[in-house]
Design goal:
296 residues, mainly alpha, DNA polymerase, domain 1, 59% helix, globular
Length: 296
């Protein structure tokens, strides 16, 4: 069943059985439709296949985009009601909205990894087989550039310029050039030159990162990879591909990068989406002060 068909049935249910008002109907459908557009834009399946992690990442993207508390809370309520109906109809076996919690007073700041946790995570892939080399390159590239997971798996091998030490990221509306640090360049060089040629299913394959079948890596496939390395590293924080994006931006800001440069690398259309990282850095400084100052 397509997202469009699902939405049509849900609209009929709200109108005929729940007798929802026009405003309620419009609000619910708008929220669910926006979630469907997010799934399409990120190659993340559909309403039926969406899981807890994808729903959490979607809500996280709303917060990062600077949406108001009321907007995020309404979106969560709409998704919860929608998936109650989906479960009732038998379209899904499990309601995936259990982890979604509305903000009570202020925007929940994105969770990030410390520099030590990043090093621990990036050290997990063992370069003893093809998968290890590929996974090391993917994680290094994600943290080196802060690109979205959809942009990572959408990259072609032609988007990498190893001699210049940059990648060309084809985002939602434009192409942006992002520099790489030396370890990321080496990880990509090892993978592109020695491993990828042995993994691709056909010589004409354009995808930079491929799965064990030699075809373009899927978003769901990468989710499983990063979760497995989180468990292997023993990191208790709930790591998603967006966690490395948030960590990339925060660590740059902590080390003196300006917001406009970070905005450019992240591909944010509005600087307000990038300003959340300033709040996060300020919160960290306050936490450090409260823990370290003898009179705090």
């Amino acid at each position: 069943m397509t997202n469009s068909e699902c939405l049509t049935k849900y609209e009929r249910y709200l109108a005929d059985e729940k007798k929802a008002s026009k405003n309620t109907l419009s609000s619910y459908l708008r929220d669910i439709r926006q979630f469907g557009e997010y799934l399409d834009a990120n190659d993340a399946g559909d309403y039926v296949t969406a899981d807890e992690d994808e729903l959490c990442e979607y809500v996280d993207s709303l917060r990062t985009a600077g949406k108001s508390i009321a907007t995020v809370s309404r979106g969560i309520a709409s998704l919860k009601n929608f998936y109650v109906w989906m479960r009732m109809q038998g379209y899904v076996e499990k309601n995936p909205t259990g982890k979604l919690v509305p903000d009570k007073a202020e925007h929940k700041l994105p969770q990030i990894l410390t520099a030590q946790e990043v090093e621990l995570l990036l050290a997990q892939p063992e370069c003893t087989d093809r998968k290890g080399y590929r996974d090391r390159a993917m994680l290094e590239l994600l943290y080196a550039t802060g690109i979205r997971v959809s942009e990572l798996i959408g990259m072609d091998v032609s988007d990498v310029n190893l001699s210049a030490g940059i990648i060309h990221c084809r985002g939602r509306d434009r192409v942006r050039a992002i520099p790489l640090y030396p370890k990321a360049i080496k990880a990509l060089k090892d993978y592109v030159e020695f491993i990828r040629p042995e993994m691709i299913a056909s010589p004409g394959e354009r995808a930079l990162f491929v799965n064990v079948s030699g075809e373009r890596m899927s978003r769901q496939g990468f989710w499983k990879i990063i979760k497995s390395y989180q468990q292997k590293a023993g990191i208790e924080k709930d790591i998603t591909p967006h966690t490395l994006r948030h960590s990339f931006a925060t660590h740059l800001l902590e080390n003196g990068a300006d917001l406009h440069s970070i905005q450019e690398m992240l591909g944010h259309a509005d600087i307000s989406s990038t300003q959340i990282y300033s709040q996060l850095v300020k919160k960290q400084l306050k936490d450090i002060y409260n823990k370290a100052h003898p009179r705090a």
